Amino acid sequence: MAESTIEWTDFTFNGWIGCTRVSPGCENCYAAAQDKFRGWTAEGWGAGKPRRRTSESNWKQPLRWNKVAVATGVRARVFCSSLADVFDNEAPDEWRTELAKLIVSTPMLDWQLLTKRIGNAARMLQGMFPLGTPDNVWLGATIVNREELLRDGPKLKAAPARVRFWSAEPLLEDLGALPGELIPDWIIIGGESGPKARSMDLAWAENLLKQCEVAGARVFMKQLGAKPQQAGEVYGKSSGKGAVMIEWPRPLRIREMPVATA
Predict the structure, then answer these.
(1) String of DSSP letters for 151-187
(2) Contact between residue 197 and residue 178 where contact means Cβ atoms under 8 Å apart
(3) For residue 238, what are the CA distances in angstroms to 62, 68, 79?
(4) Structural domain range at position 105
(5) CATH number of the domain that 238 lies in?
(6) Residue 257 located in a structural domain
(7) Of 260, 75, 73, which is closest to residue 163 (Cα–Cα)?
(8) Which of 27, 41, 83, 190 could pair covalently with 31 via S-S, beta carbons 3.0-4.6 A apart?
(9) pLDDT > 70? residue 117
């Protein structure tokens, strides 16, 4: 849990490990599969299973990253949490309080809090930051289908954050016409990877990208996934998770980031 291989961030931090599947996007959860293989949590994954807090040395890593960012004058991005969910009801409030203190103590790090429980975010952020959510918090919601867009888009819009974003990965269907008032600052788009990957039609990504461009939202096309399709047919050659940009249609070769915190 240090330098990240995820293309849209610099570091990955997990203050605890463990979660419960709550979204269609969770069906082939990488973290749950890794937990089963590596045995991170004693009792396994899911509802009623205790979450495991990570080591004190791990919790100190962001402080080191912040020192480097201060010394170089270059901000860094931290994805939190890839093996859990910050706004999980089954994670202790005390851990969120500790996380909040860490975020406040690292102002040169932009903390990307991506959740599948955006309905909990506003309330829990208030508890974490009684004086207001700091500017170095980016708040994201996973949006994999239109149902989630219409249900969770307004919740993200209402939550306090300077930068709001969607992770449309895995993108499981065409999101259709986006309600303009719900389009966030930044959208990550990607197809699913792994042996049980579901397919993504490139037209779904193109439709989303075009609407974001019109609205002025930044777009980060992460990958085509293991099973990209175009007009109902398998698209090109699948290189693992489909992250080799030169293999993509030219309109999809776009990787933008929101403006960093001043």
Answers:
(1) HHHHHHHHS--SEEEEEE-S--S---SPPGGG--SEE
(2) no
(3) 35, 38, 27
(4) 12-21+28-252
(5) 3.20.20
(6) no
(7) 260
(8) 83
(9) yes
Pairing of strands 109-115, 76-80: parallel
Average pLDDT on 131-156 reads: 98
pLDDT averaged over every residue in the chain: 95
Tokens of 9: 């961030």
Domain count within the chain: 1
Residue 236 binned pLDDT confidence (cut-offs 50, 70, 90): confident
13-61 pLDDT per residue, tens: 999 999 999 999 999 999 999 999 999 998 889 999 999 999 999 999 9
Per the CB < 8 A criterion, the answer to whether 115 and 142 are in contact is yes
Residue 170 CB: number of other CB atoms within 10 A? Answer: 25
The first and second tokens of residue 77, run together, are 């991005």
Residue 184 falls within a domain, yes or no?
A: yes
- Which phi and psi angles does 200 have, rounded to 5°? -125, 125
Token readout for 153 is 């888009």
| Structural domain includes residue 3 | no
Contacting residues for 151 by C-beta, under 8 A, at least 6 apart: none
Q: How far apart are CA 38 and CA 1, in angstroms?
A: 14
